[in-house]
Amino acid sequence: MVATHSETLHNATSAATGKTVAFALDESPDSVSALQWTFDYILSAGDKLVVLSVAQDSVTSTTSRVLVGEAGKVGEILCAEVRSREGGFGRVEKVNPAMLILGSSSKSQMTGFLVGSVSQYAVRKASVPVIVARVTPTL
Q: What residue stretches are annotated with the UspA domain (predicted)?
């Protein structure tokens, strides 16, 4: 289970028997697209999705629509708010997921170098496999 500030959005009648997937959500359009990609290509029935929201505010209505619309496809969805990337990775360690997925912010290499990239930090620090999903628009 996720620590105290978690909210269960969907809990199937039977316990989740599949894999646990952690998803770091920052409410950017890339992150929301990557969340949809995760439902389309990674998650299956019985899996547990742990959404770690690193946004300043609560989960947006766009993200809520994705989560609610896809909730029936998985066994359980849990949400937790994190205040920093370090705190988020502490939560990742606690839930022991099969993988961590996050969206690419599409920053230039220079901006990523100067500001620091959460995805770069995740790849270096996470103890589980990390997927940085860069969703490209369809033509």
A: 92-134
The pLDDT confidence band at residue 139, using thresholds 50, 70 and 90, is low
Phi, psi of 52 (to 5 degrees): -105, 105
Torsion angle defined by CA atoms of residues 29, 132, 90 and 10, in that order, rounded to the nearest 10 degrees: 60
Calculate ∠ Cα 35-63-66, nearest 5°. Answer: 65
- Which pTM value belongs to this model? 0.73
Please state which architecture CATH assigns to domain 7-133.
3-Layer(aba) Sandwich (3.40)
Angle, CA of 134, 137 and 139, to the nearest 5°: 145
Alpha carbons 67 and 64: distance in angstroms, whole number = 5
d(CA 137, CA 139): 6
